[in-house]
Amino acid sequence: MLSATVQHALRALSVLAGLPDGTYILGRDLAKRAGIPANYLSKILWTLGGAGFIDATRGSGGGYRLQKSPKDIHLADIVCLFERHRIARGCLLDSQKKCSDSEACAAHRSWQAVGDAMINFLENTTLADIAPHQEPKN
Questions:
Q1: Residue 93 φ/ψ, nearest 5 degrees
Q2: pLDDT tens, position by position, 73-109
Q3: Which of 25, 92, 101, 128 could share a disulfide with 71, CB 3.0–4.6 Å?
């Protein structure tokens, strides 16, 4: 249901969200941990940085980190950044005709429930909810 770009962005952000506060990670290490081709990831990170979700620092100890708390970043924010239309309402069978509650196609009500569930999930789930939990080091 979500594009590869959105899935990659969410995977990269979940890795960043799982890092200890203030920790930077190199782009190549983030790409490896998130399972994303490095050149593809750099384009995603550019967009995320421009939107204020991450920041980057050059030099020794540099890399990428979240600019906001993971609990303050909802998945819907990320989906909208890359694919605004994914959050928009549409009907499964609607192509040229405008399907609506008053003139519903055969799939309208069931598809609306699917859309409602997805939007509810994206709007109410944060990066903190999907971040891998770090095991305490002894």
A1: -100, 0
A2: 999 999 999 987 655 566 666 655 667 667 777 777 7
A3: 128
DSSP 34-97: HT--HHHHHHHHHHHHHTTSEEEE-STT-EEEESS-GGG-BHHHHHHHH-GGGTS---SS-SSS
pTM beyond 0.85: no
Q: Which residues contact 39 (CB under 8 A, 6 or more apart)?
A: none
pLDDT tens, 11-46?
Answer: 999 999 999 988 999 999 999 999 999 999 999 999
